[in-house]
């Protein structure tokens, strides 16, 4: 990594370093749907309020990606950010954007969550980059995150392809000082022209061929910054390949002045063949350190095993196959003695997250429990949000949580299998993200499902971002999708209203068609934030 | 010089506010800083921790290896115990003695406090009482920051000034209460300090 020129130094989260770099790279817009650990990227850009940069939350990640692609088509640079599972939602435009190519620079910042601190899985976005045949940069620290996002825009425009920048939770949500460089203004190109953007098969075949042929350039572009070799001390024949944040853990284990073994730092994909071949040739045994899937490890293993050193890592059990990488795991894999570590002593009970005191979801879920007792045999399919905590004691009110919007689709499928009552429990933002389409199915066929929309008027779990529709707006959306007025009910989730909510739920659960109950009361945290903002405005 | 700190507490207790103040002062004193924090689901009343590393040399890992933290600073006593695997030999635990009971199976507080008292270098502070005395029951985190201040490689004056600055936007009354909370915490720690002085 080239040393940064002496710009201002700021203490930034990895997410914020990405955001600031994008601003300095001359973007005209940033697009995202909130999701831990990526939310702070767009939040930071919004806080900077740079004139000429559009920074609004999108309704979901697919929409965010398409909006960014449209901005690129129009000749402007765009940043799109999301969490790893958000890329599943955006996979369709992501995959095809390699075939259309881009006009203005387009960078996708995607934050993986190894260890599942706040996610349903620990999928590794590097596999998506390989799938789409697009370059992926993986910074080791906050400074590299800043530098690499700026480089990613250059690469994107040079190759005419989107570039992925992969973060993991520990980089996204850790602060360090970042030296910034001279910002550059946007310099828009004319809007794109030609057939490349019309993916009819006749054009897509040409575009796909072009993407395949361009892989040589992709490799060359990444090779410049994707790998760096430390000669180190040959010692016992061990060499190390460390990617992204794992490089820091490797360094951490050698701070006492011990020399590193021959090591290769990987910070870009496709993997640099020369760098990998070089390190494999230098060793009898290679330890691979990477957070997420054993991506590099599988790539270099080959099949069948060839003449190469023994590869150690997540696949042979040197490191755990699942979960987040830590400096302690790296130390153990290097077979270095650590410090004497204390056990947890004394009585320590787990303290899982809980719904806030006064949370409207608790009132609705209590009422749901009472209704389920009154009409037994049913299931409540649920979704992604604070209310997923309703699965834990004492509420234990919901039965599933799979992905954004799955509650309604699964309730429909279960109802068609004869399950009665079949309920869906989904938040307002999740409903707008991915709940509308399955509701259209339910309404068209008048499938006997009861859908509870918990309208707390914000995206609560990620810290209170605005939701796409709430209150009357939300009600109109639901009615517009074909839910009959007499089975579109609104309740106010308060402790004193629980019996009334239960009664409404029981009525709708007994209705042999589609019904929607909107439970509408503002999130208690959001209400506090609004009051604080109001006070600030009043004093200003 | 390196000082690795595990900050601990319960979501909503203001752990990240402590971290932000430590970050700012460490930078003013030209130290390197890395600070890993937890956002999202874990913030909802659950156990929350942040790894904060301060050094006069470059810092490699964002996470503190186990057995290397000079200090565990906890705004809640049971949470102090949760992170003992990170405590270095000879490290200090500075913890609130005031339990936050939001789970049905919260253990007996006497046993928790007795465990903390068995750690050779520990400070237990009744942060709830002191925050009330300072005039803001929400300032327990600043009481604990004050209690930790004798163990930090950071200037007490700069820390206190940063506390005031951090709460300035909430009005003078709240800022001053937090400053008092810091002072009361510091005094309590100096009175209660156990084990060999560092």
Greatest interface (CB-CB under 8 A), with counts per chain: A-B, 52 and 55 residues
Return the CATH topology of the largest domain in chain A.
Rossmann fold
- Structural domain count of chain A: 3
Residue windows where pLDDT falls under 50 for at least 5 positions of chain B:
194-198
Structural class of chain A: alpha/beta
Average of pLDDT of chain A: 94
Characterization of this structure:
The complex is a heterodimer of chains A (540) and B (198). Chain A contains 20 helices and 20 strands. Chain A is α/β, with parallel strands linked by helices. Chain A folds into 3 domains: 9-213, 3-Layer(aba) Sandwich (Rossmann fold), CATH 3.40.50.970; 226-333, Rossmann fold (3-Layer(aba) Sandwich); 360-526, Rossmann fold (3-Layer(aba) Sandwich), CATH 3.40.50. Chain A has a 7-stranded mixed beta sheet, sandwiched between helices. Chain A has a 6-stranded parallel beta sheet with strand order 16-15-17-18-20-19, sandwiched between helices. In chain A, strands 9-11-10-13-14 form a 5-stranded mixed beta sheet, with helices on both faces. In chain A, helix 1 (14-24) packs across helix 2 (39-48) and helix 3 runs parallel beside helix 5 (91-100). Mean pLDDT of chain A is 94; it is low at 1-5. Chain B has a 6-stranded mixed beta sheet, sandwiched between helices. Chain B is globular, with a radius of gyration of 15 Å. Mean pLDDT of chain B is 93; it is low at 194-198. The chains are: A alpha/beta (540), B alpha/beta (198). Chains A and B meet through strand 8, helix 11 and helix 14 of A and helix 1, strand 2, helix 2, strand 5 and helix 3 of B.
């Amino acid at each position: 990594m080239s040393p940064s020129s002496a710009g201002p130094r700021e203490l930034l989260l990895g997410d914020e370093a990405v955001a600031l770099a994008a601003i300095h790279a001359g973007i005209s817009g940033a697009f995202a749907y909130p999701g831990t650990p990526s939310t702070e990227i767009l939040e930071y850009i919004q806080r900077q309020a740079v004139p000429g940069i559009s920074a609004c939350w999108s309704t979901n990640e697919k929409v965010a990606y398409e909006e960014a692609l449209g901005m690129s088509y129009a000749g402007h640079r765009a940043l799109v950010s999301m969490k790893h599972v958000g890329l599943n939602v955006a996979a369709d435009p992501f995959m095809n954007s390699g075939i259309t190519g881009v006009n203005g620079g387009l960078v996708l910042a995607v934050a993986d969550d190894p260890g599942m601190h706040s996610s349903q899985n620990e999928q590794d976005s590097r596999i998506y980059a390989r799938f789409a045949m697009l370059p992926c940069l993986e910074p080791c620290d906050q400074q590299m995150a800043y530098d690499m996002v700026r480089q990613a825009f250059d690469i994107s425009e040079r190759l005419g392809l989107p570039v992925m920048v992969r973060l993991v939770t520990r980089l996204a949500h850790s602060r360090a000082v970042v030296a910034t460089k001279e910002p550059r203004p946007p310099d828009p190109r004319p809007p794109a022209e030609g057939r490349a953007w019309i993916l009819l098969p006749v054009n897509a075949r040409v575009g796909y061929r072009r993407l395949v042929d361009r892989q040589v350039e992709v490799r060359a572009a990444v090779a410049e910054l994707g790998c760096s070799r430390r000669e180190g001390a040959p010692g016992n024949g061990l060499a190390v390949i460390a990617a992204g944040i794992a490089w820091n853990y490797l360094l951490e284990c050698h701070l006492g002045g011990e020399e590193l073994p021959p090591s290769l730092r990987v910070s870009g994909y496709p993997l640099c063949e020369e760098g990998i071949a070089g390190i494999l040739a230098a060793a009898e045994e290679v330890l691979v350190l990477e957070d997420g899937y054993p991506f590099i490890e599988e790539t270099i293993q080959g099949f069948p095993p060839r003449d190469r050193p023994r590869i150690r890592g997540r696949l042979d059990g040197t490191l755990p196959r699942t979960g987040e990488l830590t400096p302690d795991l790296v130390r153990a894999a290097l077979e270095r003695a650590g410090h004497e570590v204390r056990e947890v002593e004394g009585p320590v009970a787990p303290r899982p997250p809980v719904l806030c005191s006064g949370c409207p979801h608790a009132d609705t879920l209590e009422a749901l429990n009472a209704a389920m007792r009154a009409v037994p045999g049913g299931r409540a399919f649920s979704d992604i949000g604070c209310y997923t905590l309703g699965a834990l004691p004492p509420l234990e009110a919901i039965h599933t949580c799979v992905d954004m919007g799955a509650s309604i689709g699964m309730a429909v499928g279960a109802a068609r299998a004869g399950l009665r009552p079949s309920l869906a429990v989904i938040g307002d933002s999740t409903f707008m993200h991915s709940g509308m389409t399955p509701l259209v199915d339910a309404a068209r066929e008048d499938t006997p499902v009861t859908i509870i929309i918990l309208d707390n008027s914000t995206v609560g779990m990620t810290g209170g971002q605005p939701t796409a529709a709430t209150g009357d707006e939300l009600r109109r959306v639901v009615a517009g999708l074909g839910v009959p007025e007499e089975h579109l009910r609104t309740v106010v989730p308060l402790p004193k209203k629980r019996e009334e909510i239960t009664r409404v739920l029981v009525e709708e659960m007994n209705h042999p068609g589609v019904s929607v109950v909107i439970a509408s009361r503002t999130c208690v945290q959001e209400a506090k934030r609004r009051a604080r903002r109001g006070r600030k405005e009043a004093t200003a | 010089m390196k000082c690795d700190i595990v900050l601990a507490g319960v979501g909503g207790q203001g752990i990240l506010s402590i971290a932000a103040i430590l970050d700012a002062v460490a930078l003013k004193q030209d130290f390197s800083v890395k600070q890993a924090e937890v956002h999202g689901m874990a913030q909802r009343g659950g156990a929350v921790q942040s790894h904060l590393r301060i050094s006069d040399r470059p810092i490699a890992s964002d996470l503190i290896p186990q057995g290397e933290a000079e200090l565990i600073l906890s705004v809640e006593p049971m949470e102090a115990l949760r992170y003992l695997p990170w405590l270095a030999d000879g490290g200090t635990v500075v913890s609130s003695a005031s339990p936050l009971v939001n789970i049905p199976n919260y253990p007996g507080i006497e046993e928790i406090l007795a465990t903390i008292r068995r750690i050779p270098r520990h400070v237990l502070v009744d942060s709830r009482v002191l925050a009330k005395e300072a005039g803001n029951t929400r300032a327990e985190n600043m009481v604990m920051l004050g209690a930790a201040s004798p163990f930090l490689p950071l200037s007490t004056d700069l820390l206190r000034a940063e506390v005031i600055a951090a709460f300035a936007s909430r009005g003078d009354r709240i800022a001053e209460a937090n400053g008092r909370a810091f002072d009361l915490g510091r005094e309590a720690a100096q009175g209660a300090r156990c084990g060999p002085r560092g």
